[in-house]
Amino acid sequence: MHLLDNVIQPYAWGSRTALAELLGQPSPSATAQAELWMGAHPGAPSRVRRDGQGRTLLELIRAAPERELGERVARRFSGELPFLFKVLAADTPLSLQTHPSLAQAREGFARENGLGLAPGAPHRNYKDANHKPELTCALTPFDALCGFRRADETLALFDGLGLASLAPLLAPLRASPDAQGVARMFERLMTGPRESLAVQVAEVVAACAERAEHAGPFREELRQAVRLGALYPGDPGVVGALMLNLVRLQPGEAIYLPAGNLHAYLGGVAVELMANSDNVLRGGCTPKHVDVPELLRVLDFQCGPVRTLVAEPGADAESVYPTPAEEFRLSRFELRPGLDARPVRRGPEILLCAAGAARLTLADQTLALPRGASVFVSAADGAYTLQGEGLVFRATSGL
């Protein structure tokens, strides 16, 4: 087992306090700190401590994949750690985005390679050939837009704005209040002439600001649209965001995002566990590359409410967040004095102490895990014991 030193991604939407305080570093930090990456993704692999060769976790695994991952995981995922574990800290909203399916990622990656796009090209959509289902679990109250709202509710929201100019935009949804109508409305919104769209976005944001002053069923959605409109004036993604479910997660609650789910994180701190990929297709509300035709090609327009997940109690103080992903499995331990947790081993894993402090004992070796510390446990390591007082998240394979 190895303690990890992890890369912090300094994206502009990040917090200057949340990750610094989690890691016991000076707060506020000098720059925004958006994501703490724990894993072996080639773009930002963790580094293992107390390793005489000073290797990254990626190098450690590639040197002996069957030892580090176990034969089953190594065979199924071609010798790669199948998951990427993160802590995300958002002070301002992330882009409106989705992730491709595995087949779409493989096709898109091969297509862009065939076009000769450099791996780090800013206008590249596919950075790897993997999909990116993900699970997001709140550490603080966490706001997100997630999946298309029910068609009748979206019509009620837009009708409540009282804008006759929206009639052409709403016509497809009014004619077909289902996923097909949602798709046609969203496509019309995202592909219209930019100048007329900018005028329409400004009208919608102004109407949202006026209606948000009064109590109503969509008051918070309207407030978020005003916030997005101030950050990204004229961006059609601001209006598109009004078609999505607004979700507020309380600490410990989670959402699962399969391929094709249109979403945007609005603010808060959370842990994320996903397949080992960095493929993101953006639709707006960002200065980064936006490819609307490719976004429309991969989106899932099924509409309805979002299912909020809570951890299901299991053995040895471990509670598990159920998802269908075979790349990853997220669980948590709420440790207290006098309680020894002895998790059943499931291959390679990364543990993160998110609150309090813990100790991990394996044979005659004990590692202290203060708040913010993370550790990689190899598939070749034996059973271990967790003790302490605090909250520990465990990332493992879903196999």
What does this structure look like?
The chain is α+β, with helices and mostly antiparallel strands and 399 residues long. It is 28% helix and 28% strand. It has twelve helices and 19 strands. The strands form three sheets. Strands 1, 4, 13, 14, 15, 16, 17, 18 and 19 form a nine-stranded antiparallel β-sheet that branches. Strands 2, 3, 5, 7, 8, 9, 10 and 11 form an eight-stranded antiparallel β-sheet that branches. Helix 7 runs antiparallel to helix 8 and helix 9 crosses helix 10. The protein is globular.
Strand portion, in percent? 25-35%
CATH fold title of the largest domain: Jelly Rolls
Q: Mind telling me the C-alpha Rg? A: 22 Å
CATH top level label of the largest domain? Mainly Beta
The number of E-state strands comes to: 19
* Unreliable residue stretches: none
Helix content: 25-40%
The CATH superfamily title of the largest domain: Jelly Rolls
Class based on secondary structure composition and strand pairing: alpha+beta
Question: How far is the N terminus from the C terminus?
Answer: 21 Å
Overall pLDDT, averaged?
Answer: 95
Tally of contiguous helical segments: 12
Tally of discrete structural domains: 3
The outline comes out as: globular
The main sheet comes to: 9 strands, antiparallel
CATH architecture of the largest domain: Sandwich
Secondary-structure blueprint:
Elements: E1 2-5, E2 7-9, H1 18-22, E3 35-38, E4 47-48, H2 57-63, H3 65-69, H4 71-76, E5 83-90, E6 96-98, H5 102-114, E7 134-138, E8 142-148, H6 151-159, H7 167-175, H8 179-191, H9 194-211, H10 219-231, H11 236-241, E9 244-249, E10 254-257, E11 263-275, E12 281-284, H12 292-298, E13 312-313, E14 318-321, E15 329-335, E16 349-362, E17 365-370, E18 374-377, E19 385-396
Antiparallel strand pairs: 1-4, 1-18, 2-3, 3-5, 5-11, 6-12, 7-10, 7-11, 8-9, 8-11, 13-14, 14-15, 15-19, 16-17, 16-18, 16-19
Helix pairs in contact: 7-8, 9-10
